[in-house]
Design goal:
Helix content: 10-25%
Shape: globular
Strand order of the largest sheet: 1-2
Number of strands: 2
Structural class: alpha+beta
Strand content: 5-15%
Length: 64
């Protein structure tokens, strides 16, 4: 994660890692925010066997 140029990663106390991928909290699933959320999900969960949406183009792939 530290080598990914579009995220800011900070190690906090107690093995907690803060990842900043957007200037503010996400408050939309459209446009630029959607694109960044998809990239972030691919980065974090790209190897997961627990998603039916391997391209992470749906924001509800983990269900309700």
């Amino acid at each position: 994660m530290f080598d990914v140029p579009w995220v800011d990663v900070t190690e906090l106390d107690n093995v907690v890692v803060h990842i900043k991928a957007y200037e503010t909290e996400f408050n939309s699933d459209q446009g630029e925010q959607r694109a960044i959320q998809i990239k972030l999900r691919k980065l974090l969960f790209g190897q997961s066997l627990h998603t039916e949406d391997q391209t992470f183009t749906q924001l509800s792939e983990f269900g309700d």
